[in-house]
Each structure stands twice: as C-alpha cells, then as structure tokens.
Design brief:
This protein has about 900 residues and is α+β, with helices and mostly antiparallel strands. The chain has 33 helices and 26 strands. Helix 17 runs antiparallel to helix 18 and helix 25 packs parallel to helix 27.
C-alpha cells in the first residue's frame, strides 16, 4: 500500500478542485508553453545526431526511419505548443493539456529508447558508448524541459535514461559499466533537483495564491468600508431629505427647552428666518420670532410659554389644534421625552378645514342622495337632505339604519361581501336595487370613495336613481325585439330564436317545425275600412293567435305574415295540432267598432331536418307550402312536399320575368266593348295581357296578384294608361276608353300628374278617358281620396266606381265623391234569373244610382235573358261576353273607323 501511494504521488498530475491546485496547473501550463517547444527542439537535434553517428552499413530504413518519424512529430508538436502560448486556459483545460502531454512525451521517449537499445546490438562496441551518451543527454534534456511537470519528467527519465544506463551496466565492459554507474547517479541527482525545483514552484504558486487571496480580501474590506461610508452618507442624506420633505413641521427640544433639531417645514410654516433658527436656540427666542412674524396663537408670549411649560412637565401625550393670528390652523402632536424634553410635529390643516367645510356644503346641499357609511359596521354615519327625501325617511331614522336596510332583502347577503372586498369603493357601472320607506323598488347606481370620517374608516357615496332610465332601456330593448303593433317577437327575435332552436336540434339530433302563417282576405279590411281598422283587427287576431300557440314561438314578420316555431314532440303531428289551434282561434268573428270581420288562416309547414337543414331552406319551403295552401282555396294547412319547391321556383321565375315584361314589349292590350241600353257602342275597357316568350299567354289572374304584391303594378298601370290613351287618340269615332287604376297607384299620390302628362302627350280629349276605381281605394282615407278625385275631375276625365256591391257600399261616400258612373259587379249579374235576391240587389243599386243622377253599367252580361232583365230594370249600360269578348283592337276596327295612321302609330310606340 505504501509503495502504491508513493508511486501514485510520484506520477500524480494535480487537481483542479481547489484554488491552489487550479493555480498550480495553470502555472505549469504557462511554463510548459515556453519549455515544451525547447523539448521538441532537443528531440530534433538528438534525432539528427543519432542518425549521423550511426554506421553507414545499417539499412537506411533502420538508420533514418525512427529519427525521421520522431523529427516529423516533434516539428508538429512544436508548432502546436507555440500557438498555445496565447491561450489562457481554465484549471480544467490546463489539466487536460498536461495529461495529454505526459502521455505523448512518454510514448515518444519509449519508442526512442527501444530503438536505441536495438541499435546496441547492431553497432560496433566502440560506437555504443557515444550512442548511449547521445540518447541519455537527449533524455536528460527532455526531463529538464519538463521540470515544472515532475510526473512527466520522472516518467521520461525512467522510460528513456534508466534503460540506457542499465544497458551499459550489464554490458560487462569496464568503461561501459563506469559510464552506466555515473549515468544512474546523474539520473538520481536530476530527479532530486526536479523534486526540489517543483517543491519551490509549488510553494511559490501557493504563496502567490495566498497573496492574491489576501489582496482580494483587502480589496473587499476596502470596498466594504467604502460601501459602508456611502451607505452612511446615503442614510444621512435620506434622513435629511425625509426630515426636510415631511409635510409636517418637526421640532425636537431638550429638557432645558433648547432646540436640538427642526426641519425646513417647521421654519417655513411659522415664517421664521432660517438663519435665526439653529440648534441651541431657546423656546422663548423661537416664540418671540413667531410673534414678530405674526404666526402665533391668539395669546401673549407669556401665556403661550406658560401653556408650553404645562405641556413640558406633563408625561402624557397631547394633541391640540391651534388657530394662528394669520388665519392658519395647525394641529400639534406633542410627545414628551424622559429628560423633560419633547418632540412635536406641526401639521398645517388650514386647507383640510376648508375642504371639510366645502365637503359639508357640497354634501348637505347636493340634490343627489349622499351618505357616509362605516365600511366595517355598514352604519350610516351621515346623510344629506336629498337622501331623506328620496328614500322617505327622517334623518333620525336613517342615522339609526345601515346600508343593508336600503337594499332589497334578497341582496342583503351581498352587501358585506362587496364592502369587505372593495373597502367601500364602488363605481356607477352597475345598478343595485334599493327599497324606499313605502316599499317601492328603485334601481340606483352608487359611486363611492373611501375616506376617514371622525376617526373611522368610512366611504362617501352618491346615488343616481336609474329607475326611469332602466325602464326606458328595457322598453327600447323590448321594442328592438318585438313588433310595435302586436307586441309579438319581430324578425330580429325570430332570427335569434331560430338559431338557438337549430343549434339545440343539431346537438340532440332532434327536430322542430316552422309554420308560415298568412291571413286570408285581410287586405280587404285595409282596402275597405282603412289601415287603422286593419291595425285594430290585426292586434286582436295576434292576441288570439298568441293564446292559441300555448308556448310555441310566434313572431310577426310584416303585414299579415307570421312565423311560428314548435319543438314539441311528436312531429309533424304536433305542428298540425298547433296549426289547427291557430285557425280555431279565429272561428269567432273579430268585432271592431261595430264592424264584424271574418278572418281565416293559410298555413304552410316545413319540418327540420326532413325539409331543410338551415334557415334559408326551411323558411323557403314553409313559404312554398303556404303558397300551395293559398292557391288551393285558402283557409288550408299544407306540409311541404318536393313538388311545392318547384311551384315556388316557378312563381319566383314568373315574378322575375314580369319585371322586364314592359321593357321587352311583352305586354299588350285587349279591349272589351261597352254598349248603351239602346244598342249603340259607347266605349271600350282596356285590359292588359302578357305574352311570355316561353310560356305563351299568361292569364291576368296569375300575374296581376304578383304585380300588386311587388309594386310592379305601378309601372304596368302607367304603361296601360299611356298605351290606351295613345290608341284611343287614333280612333275616328269619339268613343270612351276605360282604364283600371289600382289601389297602389292611387296611394302613390302622383296619379293626377301622371294622367295630365298622358293627356298632353297623346292629345286625347279628357272627356273620352274614364278611370275605374274600386271602393277600397276610396274608403281607406276619405279626405285624401276626395282631394285626389277632385283633382282628377279638374282635368276633365270621368270617374267610375268599379265592382260596386262587393265591398263597403256606403251611401255616404257615393254623395261625397265626384263619381260619373257606377259599375255593378259581375257576381250579381251572373245570378240574375236564378235568385230573386240578386234581382233585388241589382234593382236597388240601379235605383240608388239613378237617385244620385249617376248612370249604371252592368258587368258580366253573357245571356239575352240577363240583357232583357237589365233593360227592363232601367240599367243604362252593359258590358260582357254577350256584347263582345276582350279582343285586340283590330277586331273592332269597323266600330272605330281606325285609319292606317292609327296602326302605324301603334307600331311606332
């Protein structure tokens, strides 16, 4: 064990774990960067020398191979170590370089030693000693260069120098033995020298490390001392800064009533001269200076000093508020010291007193309710008069209450949490429900800020009554989502509700139904009785529908159109039951101002997901089912089928084509003759027809309702008026031409201007133009209709009341309006000869008209019996298939005396 430890110590490189070890490794590396290039230089010289002295009889590879390889390696390593001179390694890096250096140096010396020993047997005896000395000297030189690295130096001597010495000793020749002994002794001496030098190096490095540590300690101590001095100066500066930047004045007196220290605020507060107030000045002198400056209390100097003396002998703390002669107010906090001295702070509270006075004025006289409440107990500490008025309590009652008493019972638990969390701070973003003395619930927004009130943590609050505003907001929100007339949900509410229902159905893989609802014959109420009566009927009908919906969603989307949505299972039977209930709600007539209205519903139904997967498809398909219900006779309920979709598309296509029919010249007129009871033709009624380029002739019953629904009737009506007048202007016979005017044209208000323009353009005599108007147009707004008709009459045209007997048939408007003719509806004429009731109605109308001085024209005359009956009853004029069917004007050319110019004029137009 001892031998092993000795061997390890001999060849131990070192450790980077300790500061001293690391410093030694770095120092060894530094020395080696200078010595190792010399070492490799020695090896180069030795290689060349050995090669030179070897006999020429040896093979070239044996003579020069090893020296040449050694020479090449030495040159490379020399360059490498020369470059390392600029490197400043860490201890760990230095250790790695030393380890590699020892291995390579040992390997090179071992190879060279082996080669040398082999040469001993290959050279003559006389050459062995010189050869051994050359190699030994090279080994010694290498070891010397590695002297700062003893483990490598020792290893070099043991590997190269010792074997050569031993080889000489065992050669048996006296000279060689003597040389070997001397060389061994030289190796021992050299190793001792290396050990001694290395020990000195270690001590030197250790001393240098100790000096560095001590130097670092000295520098640290110096730095610490400087830091302490700087800290002391900083603390002194801070204390001085804090002392002189206090908002209160500070003074410190000893037991002899002499000033120890005071701050700048104390001097400034009492307007004292700064140069006169210094440590050591007596209290009396300071008081005298204050009296000179006018910053003294309302008392004499002696009274003030006597008061201060009483405080000085007191061992209790004392606080006082003093009003100075200059109007300032100061609060003094007096704290006695054990040596009968004292320290006192003086706070100027003049502005605070003024703010408190302003606050009291603002608080008490504020028109808004305000109160001060304790943030811990929630007690009301102060209330203003507005609070008492607003809540209906007396001031005494309110001061016996707390904040919880103002809140509604269900919110009381929240109050303490709010105060605890925000320390009384509140913003007016949210409203809270308060209750007044009479139990009325009000919505208030509270703005509160914390403050100290009579030494207690409190908050001051102002209340904004938002009750009316909240109601207005709720009303606005309600109006945004509800129809103003019926108070049912509107289209915006429908869209929102539909989205929720659709999402829920998709999530649960469920279904729901959409019902499109439309009133039958509702337009007649508006036409005959006016929109005010129609609105009243619509409100009553909506109320009934809402009751019948029994929780299903029902919305009005415009006019007399409604949408219902039901999710009730099972579908679709529940949707049909809902539709039946809705229709049943209108079984009883609607009574409005003595008038009775019979209404019915047409309903179209589409079911998700069978009939569509989104709003567009479901609403469109329900609308298609509604269209089918109306088309099949109204008052019906229809579920959507695939064929309805095609019908709806056809109707929309027809509507699209109708928009361009006038511009494309697809419309034309047919004329039906009107005759006098005596047999002569008195005029023609112009009837519009549509020749579609693909569909052929489209019946008026199909396209006229579409035109009225889309307001295209205005453009078509203007074209009919203009074309009929242009045609009539070409007739030689001065016959009348009758043109129908729709309710929409009449309501537009520019009918009088249009008729005047057409008369001027065509040159037709106004007396030849007759405008046919229905009862509904007149009764909608009697005053407006009267003005309109009088304006038309001033143009010179005739006014005929069309379809008389099917509507309101009021005697009052027959007297009010400037009518020129009454036309009996064809429904009454068709029943002549079959029922006595029809004859009685016809006879009554003719008698009524004649009594007013108006001629009567009967429409729909198709038989000779009807004609004879009408003549016998005194009917003035007739129109119908018996007189002549509607035909193009060329068919009746012989009655008109139309010239070629007329045909040319029509073609040109």
């Amino acid at each position: 064990m001892n031998i092993r430890r000795y061997f390890r110590r001999w060849f131990y490189i070192g450790s980077a774990a300790t500061p001293a070890g690391g410093a030694l490794l770095i120092e060894q590396f530094r020395i080696l960067t200078s010595q190792i290039p010399v070492l490799y230089g020695v090896l180069i010289v030795e290689s060349v020398s050995v090669s030179y002295v070897l006999p020429a009889s040896l093979p070239l590879w044996f003579r020069f191979g090893v020296p040449g390889a050694l020479l090449l390696i030495s040159v490379i390593r020399m360059i490498y170590w020369i470059k390392l001179r600029k490197v400043v390694p860490t201890a760990e890096q230095a250790l790695k370089h030393l380890f590699k250096t020892r291995i390579l140096a040992s390997a090179l010396n071992a190879v060279f030693a082996v080669w040398t020993l082999v040469l001993f047997d290959s050279v003559e005896a006389d050459s062995r000693a010189p050869l051994a000395l050359l190699v030994f000297l090279g080994s010694v030189g290498s070891a010397y260069c590695l002297g700062s690295f003893p483990s490598a130096a020792r290893l070099t001597l043991l590997i190269s120098a010792v074997p050569i010495s031993l080889r000489l000793l065992i050669s048996g020749e006296a000279l060689h033995v003597c040389i070997g002994i001397n060389l061994c002794m030289l190796v021992v001496l050299l190793i001792r020298m290396i050990n001694t030098n290395y020990s000195d190096l270690v001590n030197l490095v250790a001393s240098r490390a100790d000096l560095a540590v001590e130097g670092e300690r000295a520098r640290s101590a110096e730095l610490a001392a400087l830091t302490e001095q700087a800290n002391a100066r900083e603390i002194a500066d801070r204390f001085d800064s804090a002392l002189n930047n206090m908002s209160q004045g500070l003074c410190f007196f000893d037991g002899a009533q002499r000033l120890i220290v005071c701050n700048r605020r104390y001097v400034d507060m009492y307007d004292l001269p700064p140069d006169s107030v210094k440590p050591g000045i007596s209290l009396r002198e300071i008081v005298q200076l204050r009296f000179e400056a006018g910053s003294h209390p309302a008392m004499t100097v002696d009274e003030y000093l006597a008061w201060r003396d009483q405080l000085a002998v007191s061992v209790e703390q004392h606080d006082s508020v003093v009003e100075l002669a200059n109007g300032r107010v100061v609060r003094i906090y007096h704290r006695p010291m054990p040596d009968r001295g004292w320290v006192a702070t003086h706070e100027d509270i003049t502005d605070l007193r003024r703010r408190e006075a302003s606050f009291r004025l603002l608080f008490e006289e504020n028109p808004l309710p305000m109160w001060v409440a304790d943030v811990d107990t929630l007690e009301l500490l102060a209330v203003n008069a507005a609070t008492c008025r607003h809540y209906g309590y007396s001031r005494e009652q309110m001061l016996s209450m707390n904040v919880e008493n103002l809140r509604v019972p269900e919110d009381i638990r929240k109050v303490r949490d709010e105060f605890r969390q925000h320390q009384g701070m509140q913003t007016a973003h949210d409203t809270r429900r308060h209750v007044t003395a009479d139990g009325r619930i009000i919505e208030v927004a509270i703005e509160a800020r914390p403050l100290r009130y009579n030494g207690r943590d409190a908050c001051v609050a102002v209340a904004f009554d938002m009750t009316d505003r909240k109601r207005a907001e709720q009303r606005i929100l309600h109006l945004a989502w509800h129809d103003a007339l019926t108070d049912l949900p509107n289209r915006a509410a429908l869209d929102g509700h539909f989205s929720k229902v659709l999402d829920a159905a998709r999530e649960r893989s469920g279904s729901f139904a959409v019902l499109c609802i439309d009133f039958d014959r509702f337009k007649q109420i508006n036409d005959l009785f006016g929109h005010s009566m129609g609105d009243a009927a619509l409100r009553e009908a909506s109320r009934r529908l809402q009751m019948a919906s029994q929780g299903a969603f029902l919305a009005r989307i415009g006019g007399d159109e409604f949408i219902a949505i039901t999710e009730q299972d099972p579908l679709p039977s529940s949707a049909e039951l809902l539709a039946d209930r809705l229709r049943g709600a209108l079984d009883q007539d609607i009574e409005i101002d003595g008038h009775s209205f019979e209404l019915d519903l047409s309903i179209g139904i589409a079911v998700y997901p069978r009939d569509g997967h989104d709003a567009r498809s479901l609403f469109a398909n329900a609308d298609a089912a509604l269209y089918r219900a109306k088309h099949e006779g109204r008052g019906a309920i229809r579920f959507f089928t695939a064929t309805m979709d095609q019908q709806l598309r056809d109707r929309r296509a027809l509507e699209h084509d109708l928009k361009s029919a006038v511009a494309n010249g697809e419309l034309y007129l047919e004329y039906q003759p009107q005759r006098h009871a005596g047999g002569e033709i008195i005029g023609f009624e112009a009837l519009v027809r549509w020749m579609h380029p693909q569909r052929g002739i489209v019946p008026p019953a199909e396209f006229i309702p579409i035109a009225e629904e889309t307001d295209l009737i205005v453009e078509i009506g203007e074209w009919v008026l203009r074309e009929a007048c242009r045609e009539a202007a070409c007739w030689k016979a001065p016959l009348q031409v009758a043109v129908n005017v729709s309710a929409i044209q009449f309501r537009r208000g520019n009918l009088q201007q249009l008729v005047g323009d057409v008369l001027r353009e065509t040159g037709i005599s106004p007396a030849r133009l007759e405008l046919e108007i229905t009862e509904g147009v007149l009764i909608e707004n009697v005053a407006r209709a009267t003005l309109m008709l009088k304006g038309l009459k001033r143009l010179g045209v005739s006014i005929a009341l069309d379809d008389f007997g099917t509507g309101y048939s009021s005697l009052s408007y027959l007297q009010s309006f400037p009518l020129d003719r009454i036309k009996i509806d064809r429904s009454f004429i068709a029943s002549l000869g079959r029922t006595d009731r029809s004859l009685a109605i016809v006879r009554a109308v003719i008698g009524l008209a004649h009594g007013l001085g108006l001629p009567v024209l009967a429409e729909g005359v198709e038989t000779n019996d009807q004609l004879r009956t009408l003549i016998s009853e005194g009917c003035d004029e007739m129109q119908g298939y018996l007189i002549g069917r509607p035909r193009r004007i060329e068919v009746y050319a012989n009655l008109l005396g139309r010239s070629d110019a007329a045909g040319h004029m029509r073609t040109a137009t």
